[in-house]
Amino acid sequence: MPEQPNPEQDPITTKSYAAYYLVAMVILMATLFWALWDEAWVQRPWKAFQEQWKDRYSAFLNTARSKSATSETDVEKNPDYAALKQAYDKTYQDSKAQAAEARAAVDEVTARLLAVQTVFTDRRAYVNALSYEIETSTSASRCV
pTM to 2 decimals? Predict the structure, then answer.
């Protein structure tokens, strides 16, 4: 196919759109900066309050942390806590053996289930294949 000549007044080759692009870019940049300013300062008048609240709450949490650390050590020194901790540790050690036995039983049952499931899956696939063969058979006697 021969190349067609360009027309005499082709706007793409005879005109420059640089000035239009420049005006469009200036407008876009102006709207971008306006939107950022509007979002950051005009629509969010509570930002100063948020900053003040953050400082105050951080100071409160720092004092609460030191108070909670001292109260935690006081609780750990309490003889009732020591007795409860000792009872918990004894019960945990006693139940460890039962948990191990239960885990072993669950593992055994899972192994048996997997063995049965594998055989069942193979047999089901075989039956499905036979069913498909029977359903799609074109012979007169559809018996296998």
Answer: 0.34
